């Protein structure tokens, strides 16, 4: 069966000047593709091959003997999710039920933005910042390397990749500038709202 590398939901130049064609070519075609290939090669012929990748991630999380498999499975999923979290002419603020819930759980959209940016900026080394639904409450969290909140029973709604390969060609060591641009110009709030509607 295997896990297919999804095509980008936008063209390679669609996010310029915020994220360059070069970054997307390396990030999607090299990094993401490698995680997918490594995962498929690792599960080929095993009982895991027919399982949805989310089930595999949850089943092997925390098993040190399967750390390599987990890293490739989670990174394959994380990246597929990440591409849908961004879009051309994104950013701004959500509306409707999601906006109401953010105001309820964070106090205001601005408070959410502050928390989300801080999660990305303070994630030491490689990792991810997330907006999740946790037992009915929206929370901002961060994970290192390939870790995913679904292994802690949380539902991912939005993620921001803060591995260097996500931004280094465009922003060098200025991670905060990438984070500002991600929030203000790139977030696909329609996708986040869809995830919230399914999970709520």
Which helices and strands, and how do they pair?
Layout: H1 21-43, H2 53-60, H3 67-84, H4 96-106, H5 109-122, E1 127-134, E2 137-144, E3 155-161, H6 168-171, H7 175-186, H8 189-199
Antiparallel strand pairs: 1-2, 1-3
Helix pairs in contact: 1-3, 2-3, 5-7
Report on this structure.
Residues 3-86 form the Manganese/iron superoxide dismutase N-terminal domain. Destroys radicals which are normally produced within the cells and which are toxic to biological systems. This is Superoxide dismutase. With 200 residues, the protein is mainly alpha-helical. It folds into two domains: 21-84, Helix Hairpins (Orthogonal Bundle), CATH 1.10.287; 96-199, minor pseudopilin epsh fold, CATH 3.55.40. 50% of the residues lie in helices and 12% in strands. It is built from eight helices and three strands, in the order αααααβββααα. It has helices at 21-43, 53-60, 67-84, 96-106, 109-122, 168-171, 175-186, 189-199, and strands spanning 127-134, 137-144, 155-161. The chain has a three-stranded antiparallel β-sheet with strand order 2-1-3, sandwiched between helices. Helix 1 (21-43) runs antiparallel to helix 3 (67-84), helix 2 (53-60) crosses helix 3 and helix 5 runs antiparallel to helix 7 (175-186). It is globular, with a radius of gyration of 16 Å.
């Amino acid at each position: 069966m295997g896990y297919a590398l999804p095509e980008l939901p936008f063209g390679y130049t669609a996010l310029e000047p915020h994220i360059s064609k070069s970054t997307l070519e390396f990030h999607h075609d090299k990094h993401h593709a490698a995680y997918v290939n490594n995962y498929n090669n690792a599960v080929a012929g095993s009982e895991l091959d027919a399982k949805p990748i989310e089930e595999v991630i949850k089943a092997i999380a925390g098993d040190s003997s399967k750390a390599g498999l987990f890293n490739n499975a989670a990174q394959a999923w994380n990246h597929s999710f990440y591409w849908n979290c961004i879009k051309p002419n994104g950013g701004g603020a959500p509306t409707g039920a999601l906006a109401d819930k953010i105001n309820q759980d964070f106090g205001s959209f601005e408070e959410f933005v502050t928390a989300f940016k801080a999660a990305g900026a303070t994630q030491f080394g490689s990792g991810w910042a997330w907006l999740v639904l946790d037992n009915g409450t929206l929370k901002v969290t961060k994970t290192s390397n390939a870790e995913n909140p679904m292994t802690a029973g949380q539902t991912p709604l939005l993620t921001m990749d803060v591995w260097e390969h996500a931004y280094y060609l465009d922003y060098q060591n200025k991670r905060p500038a990438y984070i500002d641009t991600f929030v203000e110009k790139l977030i696909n709030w329609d996708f986040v709202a869809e995830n919230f509607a399914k999970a709520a």
